Amino acid sequence: MASFAAKRLKIPDRRAIGGQHPETLARCEAAQFPIGAQDRQWTAQPFGVDHLFSHNFRILRPLHHLSKHNYFGQIGYMSNFRIGIDLGGTKIEAAVLARDGTEVFRHRVPTPRGYDETLRTLAGLVCEAEQRVADQASVGIGIPGVISPSTGLVKNASSIALNGHAFDRDVSDALEREVRVENDANCFALSEALDGAGRGHRVVFGVILGTGCGGGIVVEGKVLQGRHHIAGEWGHTPLPWPAPDEVPGLRCWCSQYGCLETTISGTGLARDCDGPGAVDARNIPARAAAGEARAQAALDRHADRLARGLAQIICLLDPDAIVLGGGLSNMDHLYVQVPALIGRHVFSDVCTTPILRNMHGDSSGVRGAAWLWPAPIS
Ligand SMILES: [Zn+2]
User: Fold this and answer.
1) Which of 47, 92, 353, 362 has a CA 20 to 30 Å removed from the CA of 315?
2) What is the 168 CA–ligand 1 centroid distance (Å)?
3) Structure pTM?
4) Which CATH number fits domain 197-358: 3.40.50.10490, 3.40.350.10, 3.30.420.40, 3.90.1720.10?
């Protein structure tokens, strides 16, 4: 029986999916997949699972040898594949990881506006991904918000229609399996801690410096959620050791004044350099390199503010490594100026915390979401 949510959303019974009935596959695709066939952009898989498929993935070859995986209630630990989904404000990206972490597929679609349509789109992505690997997979989803432990509803999601919904329950219901949902910055930190730049470090603090500013803490390979699921929400703490002209600071969308996010995010850097209304910081390093004093001064202020913010993290958490991600993480001043400035604010004789550039780039969101399911025992 399809679940209530699956019926409400007109999602077909998924237990028949798994490579055995072409009609079911076509029905699944027609009902669920949100964009036209001409928009599909599956990337070629880098390792040898091609033999599982015909060239037209809608006509799967018989896969009776995989039938032991065809009962949806039993997947997760036993699955050969993990699906990770990064649910963002403008796009939803899905990737499938093999057991060893190799990415075998990736697909991206625009984020729909409504909540039900978002659930349908996620179901379509999972359906299509499982058709591609001809197997069932565990599913983890990263969202720009968190599930409140007190209400079970999404909170703090600034850009998508999830706030106030029991998203983890609804998406698990729609997909008829347990789906793990985690904050996107936590997914980034998990990805980089497990097999990225932070690999081998016991405590990793991951930072996303993009439109906003997020943070996540991973301890011995596990996300530290905290009592309110806000551990690592560093962007909404105040800029420490402020100069007189830095207080009270700008109003943040979270309603407070002077949050770190208002100055160290990409938007904050752009606004600091080019004034109110500026949002794009990407060309500032090139302008500084070309001799523009205003751009260089903005980078210097940004480095100093980020160093103060990270020094506070080191005093509180003393992580073994800090990994930077997001749109600003390609800027060299983060790795040249910032480490030299942190030490003066850290309550220690030396400060050797490495500030690392992420390894997986834009893939960390989907990879971390996939890794929400633990590594299989093999
Ligand atoms: Zn804030």
Assistant:
1) 362
2) 25
3) 0.81
4) 3.30.420.40
